[in-house]
Structure formats: structure tokens, C-alpha cells
């Protein structure tokens, strides 16, 4: 149980969906972002807008047969509500408040032992401090009715390389979709409801 919880939290909380052992950023120095200066500035602007959002929802689809679907609601500074489902299996529901984790499933609700050091969402988007990010500006695409600008990223950290396509809404400058490709397959994260009046109640146990 502990290992499955950690895996779930890892994939769900890392908002851009890095499906590998690249850790979230913990320090202020940040990664090295390389590319055309205007493109780098646009990417950093999207990161900042994301970091400044007080609430949002996301839907992450991880590769598999059937795929794993994680839906996440977030309210600043430290409240998450997550639901993980896979095919016809009973969904697992998690609450994260501060560094505590609660699990709710068909058997009931319980607080899991120990604590989790969840990275602050305002800091985690730019990847780990040792990462090298090569970014190029791609084309435009409409994502479920939202016009977006695509940014192609190649991220290398800890000897592992993944590729991202970050879709940024042209009207708001906020991330709308992220597609991450690695040896495990492609993970897709869709973002919505930035700044919405989301309420995450205390865990029901």
C-alpha cells in the first residue's frame, strides 16, 4: 500500500506529468532553460502564471491497458483532492492536507501512516534544479475548443530524457495541456478551472 500510494502521489502531484524518477524542484535556483530568448521568456511566463494560480483542476491519463486516470483538484496552499481510477476497478480517493494523507475506498476511510513531503505546486512546475530544458516554439492547435501555442521541450535530468509538448492557452497564457513521452509511454495532463472557487473539505475520517 505504501509504495502504491507514493507512486500515485508522484504521478498526480507532478503537474506536468513527468513519468520517471525526475524529482520536483525544491530550491529557488531552478533548471537551465535553453532556446531562443523569446521562446524561453514565453515559457517562463507560462510557468509564473501557473505558479500564481490559487486553484485549478487537472485530469491525467497515464499509459496502460486500461489507462490510469487521475483527477486532481488543488486549493492553495496545500490542499489536494485526488481520485485514481482504472477500468472497472473501484476508484481510490485521496486527500492531502499539509503533509498528511488520507485514503478513502470501498472499505472506508483512514489516515495513512507517516507523512509526505509534497512539493509546493508554486515551485514544482519548472522541474528539478539540475534539469536541462531545451525548448522550441511549435505551431498552434485548438485543444477542446481552446486555441493554444505549442512549446516542444526536451528535458534531461539524472541521466533520463523525456519529451514534452506543452500547450499554452493563447488567451490566458496558462498551461492547457501537457503531453509527456518517455520509455513508459505518453502521459497526457489537461488543466482547467484556474482560479475557480473550489472547496476541498477536510478528509471524511
Structure overview:
The protein has helices at residues 2-13, 37-52, 121-124; strands spanning 32-34, 55-62, 68-75, 79-86, 92-97, 100-105, 108-111, 132-143, 146-157, 160-169, 175-182, 185-192. It has 205 residues and is of the alpha+beta class. The chain has a twelve-stranded mixed β-sheet, with helices on one face. The chain is globular, with a radius of gyration of 17 Å. The two termini are 18 Å apart.
Question: Topology of this structure?
Answer:
Blueprint lengths: L1 H12 L18 E3 L2 H16 L2 E8 L5 E8 L3 E8 L5 E6 L2 E6 L2 E4 L9 H4 L7 E12 L2 E12 L2 E10 L5 E8 L2 E8 L13
Parallel strand pairs: 1-8
Antiparallel strand pairs: 2-3, 2-12, 3-4, 4-5, 5-6, 6-7, 8-9, 9-10, 10-11, 11-12
Amino acid at each position: 500500500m505504501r509504495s502504491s500510494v507514493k507512486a500515485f502521489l508522484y504521478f498526480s502531484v507532478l503537474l506536468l506529468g513527468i513519468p520517471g524518477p525526475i524529482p520536483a524542484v525544491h530550491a529557488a535556483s531552478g533548471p537551465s532553460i535553453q532556446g531562443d530568448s523569446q521562446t524561453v521568456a514565453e515559457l517562463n511566463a507560462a510557468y509564473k502564471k501557473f505558479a500564481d494560480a490559487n486553484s485549478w483542476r487537472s485530469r491525467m491519463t497515464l499509459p496502460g491497458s486500461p489507462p490510469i486516470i487521475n483527477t486532481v483538484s488543488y486549493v492553495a496552499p496545500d490542499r489536494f483532492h485526488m481520485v485514481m481510477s482504472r477500468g472497472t476497478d473501484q476508484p481510490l480517493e485521496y486527500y492531502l492536507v499539509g503533509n498528511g494523507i488520507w485514503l478513502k475506498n470501498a472499505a472506508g476511510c483512514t489516515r495513512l501512516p507517516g507523512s509526505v513531503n509534497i512539493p509546493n505546486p508554486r515551485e514544482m512546475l519548472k522541474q528539478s534544479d539540475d534539469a536541462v530544458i531545451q525548448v522550441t516554439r511549435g505551431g498552434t492547435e485548438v485543444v477542446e475548443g481552446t486555441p493554444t501555442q505549442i512549446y516542444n521541450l526536451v528535458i534531461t535530468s539524472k541521466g533520463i530524457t523525456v519529451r514534452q509538448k506543452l500547450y499554452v492557452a493563447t488567451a490566458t497564457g496558462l498551461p492547457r495541456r501537457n503531453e509527456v513521452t518517455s520509455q513508459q509511454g505518453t502521459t497526457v495532463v489537461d488543466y482547467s478551472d484556474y482560479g475557480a472557487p473550489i472547496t476541498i473539505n477536510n478528509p471524511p475520517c
